[in-house]
Amino acid sequence: MIAAVFDLDRTLLPETTAERIFIRHLVRERVLGISAAIRTGQYALRTGLRNAVMKIRADRPYLAGLHDAALWLHGRTCAREGILPALSDTGIRRINEHRESGHEIVLLSGSLPYVVEPIAENLGVSNVICSHLDVQRQRLTGRLSGLHPYGEAKATLMRAMAERHGIELDVSYCYADHHTDDLLLEMFGNPVCVNPSEKLRKTARLRDWRVEVFD
Prior knowledge:
Blueprint lengths: L2 E5 L10 H11 L5 H14 L4 H8 L8 H16 L5 H12 L3 E5 L4 H11 L3 E3 L3 E4 L2 E6 L7 H14 L7 E4 L5 H4 L4 E5 L3 H10 L2 E3 L3
Parallel strand pairs: 1-2, 1-6, 2-3, 6-7, 7-8
Antiparallel strand pairs: 4-5
Helix pairs in contact: 1-4, 2-3, 4-6
């Protein structure tokens, strides 16, 4: 099976990340406020400031205690009103071209399923890799469940999906934007650097990887 894997943040969504849009939505709706900021600060102190940024990005302590079902409702609203209109027309056309060629489409993101899965549904994509958070008694614990799809973990998760679904990576396509996606991109026979960071652009020149702009 040939697949076309699309990173979401700053690739299909050129200017920002889905999760940033979601957080702004939650702040506007007063789901997140000063108590979330206090929880995050306390978490940073417990974790140790040296590792705090990456741990906060993975565990999302600011969401601790929130109701899982409510976040699904907010996520669908946010996806419909704030994220889908901002997706790249070029990127959507490319998804459709791959679909018409019989390729399996995969949406890949470090963002949360509350927004990633509604986006995938709208695009007709059934294969999703994203972050998942631990839920106990229908509320978020403020801990990550499984791997955070970032850097090397993206490659690990993609390799596992390829093995499960029989995806032939050496003839498949991957679209991503950041130098931390190097390990992911090099797994594929057809890596495409979209809106690349400067480091990824240099890597693309060295390895003769295709560079494209999704706007």
